[in-house]
Amino acid sequence: MGRKRSIRGHLDQQDGAPSINDTQETTKASATEETEENHNDSRITTAEQKEYWAQQSVDDDGMLGGYPQVSRVDIQFSRNFLHKLRRLHPTSDSNSRSSEQESKYAFRSCLEVGAGIGRVTLGLLSSISEKIDIVEPMEKFTAGLTARDSPLVKSGQLRRVYNVSLQDWTADLAPSYDADLGNDAQGEMPSEARERYDLIWNQWCLNYLPNPALVRYFSSLIPLLAPDGWIIVKENISTADGGADTFWEEDSSVTRTDANFRVCFEKAGLVVVRTQLQTGFPKTLLPVRMYALRPAS
């Protein structure tokens, strides 16, 4: 399915799970862990994911799994994370802009994966990116974003929407919505027209991909990055006993450990430039970690 905007309750995990700190070193999965990961991968089914999301409401409550109250804290934490990231790692592009341009938009082009109804799009990305592309499998969630009276349409910021699962999405696909063509876009995207993104945002959606597909997906993002571009990952982190990933039958998804994410990043050719645990969420919820990634070379 490749999208998710819900939060898992920590009470669903086993008691006594180990904590995760910001200085945790990358570790190689043991043979036992790899066997468990393969087992989880084999249980992921797109049909069950689609069935789950078809039943969810088109609002923050549906996107956040019954925890709409955390949306404001989530958005503000992400905003602060990006602000500090750009301050610590200034780019030649941002340095070359005029103060007026810089104060208007921090990024020229952004891709958001698993956008849902546009909670993060409207709450964060629209204030920092001049143009926005979206990947979201469920058309019912993006209908409001592409409507004529949508704030993103009125501002001219929404460029393309791809109503396709993350497993099936590539940059060559024609969008379901194109600002230049409306909802009548057809055919493949010419290679010379492919966008290069300053920011690629992945939040609560990568849990729908098996490990091999996740590595391939990360690898596919590298040629889509503009110089000095960022890949952001914000996902739940498993705290199950034994450092294992956790499979959720409810929506056929997997919550990964920090160590497993780091292994996937490395296999895809990405390095972690900055990472931080989300704060301010109810303690009954799973930990949520943000990663800022760039190509290793």
From TrEMBL:
CDD domains per the UniProt record, alphabetical: AdoMet_MTases
Gene Ontology MF terms in the entry: N-terminal protein N-methyltransferase activity
Catalytic activity: N-terminal L-seryl-L-prolyl-L-lysyl-[protein] + 3 S-adenosyl-L-methionine = N-terminal N,N,N-trimethyl-L-seryl-L-prolyl-L-lysyl-[protein] + 3 S-adenosyl-L-homocysteine + 3 H(+); N-terminal L-alanyl-L-prolyl-L-lysyl-[protein] + 3 S-adenosyl-L-methionine = N-terminal N,N,N-trimethyl-L-alanyl-L-prolyl-L-lysyl-[protein] + 3 S-adenosyl-L-homocysteine + 3 H(+); N-terminal L-prolyl-L-prolyl-L-lysyl-[protein] + 2 S-adenosyl-L-methionine = N-terminal N,N-dimethyl-L-prolyl-L-prolyl-L-lysyl-[protein] + 2 S-adenosyl-L-homocysteine + 2 H(+)
GO cellular component: cytoplasm
Pfam families listed in its UniProt record: Methyltransf_PK (PF05891)
SUPFAM superfamilies on file: S-adenosyl-L-methionine-dependent methyltransferases (SSF53335)
Keywords: Methyltransferase, S-adenosyl-L-methionine, Transferase
InterPro entries: MeTrfase_NTM1 (IPR008576), SAM-dependent_MTases_sf (IPR029063)
UniProt protein name: Alpha N-terminal protein methyltransferase 1
Lineage: Eukaryota, Fungi, Dikarya, Ascomycota, Pezizomycotina
